[in-house]
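Duplicate of earlier report; Sec-independent protein translocase protein TatA input re-posted below.
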Amino acid sequence: MPNLGVPELLIIALVLVLLFGAKKLPEMARGVGRSLRIFKSETAKLRDDDDAEAQHHVQAQAQAPVQPQPQPQPVQPQQIPAAPAPALSAEEQARQLEEQAARLRASAASQADKPA
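Output:
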């Protein structure tokens, strides 16, 4: 954007006076000033909140390193053999999972059909 010189600023001021009138310009300037003050205070609050949150996060990390808790293993109805299985392709794995899901659905359906 080119630099605005004195002649350009005078033309802009003259256009504003003609458009809004001399009485409305001070009111508009006050409104713009209030808006800018509010905007600056809100952005300062956001920066302060971000700084406080970052300090809190750093302090929490420095206080005590969290050791991972062992996750309980889910109980499966059928035990997987202890011998390592040969590497299967994705299609074979998907087929085996589908068969296992079908068996589980069938056992769940048979248990639901039994009277309580």
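The chain has a mean pLDDT of 78.

Merging into the original ticket.
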